[in-house]
Amino acid sequence: MIRLVRASSLPVLPIDYTAEFTGRVQIKEIYAKAVKELKGKEFCADLTQLVEKKGLSYVSDAVEGMLLATFEPERFPVVPRTEWTIELTGLPIEAESIVRETETIAEGVFWARDMTNRPGNLLRPDAFAREVQALFARLHKCVKVEVEILDEKKMAELGMNAILEIGMSSAYKPRLCIIRYRGKPCDDRVTALVGKGVTCDAGGYCLKEASSMKGIKGDMAGGAAVAGAVYALAKNRIPVNVTGIIPMVENRISDGSLLPGDVITSYSGKTIEILNTDAEGRLILADSVTYAVRDEHAYQVVDIATLTGCICSCLGFGAAGMICDNEDFFRKFEQAYEKSGERYLRLPIYEEYERLIDSDIADVKNTGGRFAGSITAGLFIRRFADQTPWIHLDIAGTAWVDPPIFEYQSTGASGAGLTTMYYLCAGDRKQNETGSCC
After folding, report:
1. Closest among 157, 138, 370, 125 to 232, alpha carbons compared
2. Rounded to an integer, what distance in angstroms lies between the CA atom of residue 202 and that of residue 216?
3. Active-site residue identified among 124, 196, 282, 339
4. Whole-model pTM?
């Protein structure tokens, strides 16, 4: 619970206001560290000097840092989490909307972390879909969000073979979760957020090494971030139109699993040569991006995935990779991640990288070889965006932190990408544009 008060009797959060607040990440770190050093779960934070030094817009960073620092990973058997009490002083009344917006964003991050941390046997594709439905059931009835779940039969009717060829390798059948939030019905522009939802990734016949098996439960972090971002947009009643699309599968070995050398036909009609069955994320995203453009009529698309180990070799665990093929879209994304404090490095699109995924026997192959793996993985997905402005986020290094990089993280899932996608969709709207219908 977080509330704005004029005065408080709770212990005061120890913040050194003589230090220079140089940026959003530092502010989040300072407040998160102070919370982690507390011995109780009740405190007051006086934000008077922060507002004087940095301005009202930085209140969201302090609040986010404090809230995210209170996150406690689930334990099994599940026990109720102890509720925190946070009181804020030194804020004008107009800061109330900033605090409430940030509180909802943190709620989305908590949910995404919980889903990504959850053991794979407790989050099969169908269970993941039900968790998304339960998340949006929390919203007030006046907030209009449609959650549609396509099962394997419906996907077969549509011809979503790239999803099915991966998902049908498991006894736990695939699902396609589609979340439609229409916060601005008078506008026909829809942004699509497409998140990889592989709840178990053993690699198929290109079986992963035992040393990398521990993290296979978290291969749905992109999908969790998408659901959490759309939830926060809807609960805050941001006047935008967003469709979240999450293909949910397990990637296992069975007598019907894909083999290297196979050729499949995707939902787009493009044929795909399979060279590596552990490059499954880009396959399910291919069908999902096609669906976003053709069926949801998205005018811009973001895909987000724990896609390649290569990105970890390149950037470690403090920054994610991104690819964008539209300069206007990139500038909007740049503003969003500057607001969120997340770090992204833009990777290049060159013709020679495109050629690496050309196939001799199909339209495209699902790996580009040994080099530039993060780039060619992203460019594979781009082939299915039909020239729609597109951004690809590879969060394989930032979705899971052990140990944490920043004070506002905890060991395990981070909720990477969620806040940046939120601010990308929200844009530079005024506070009073969020509106209310009840």
Report:
1. 138
2. 7
3. 282
4. 0.95
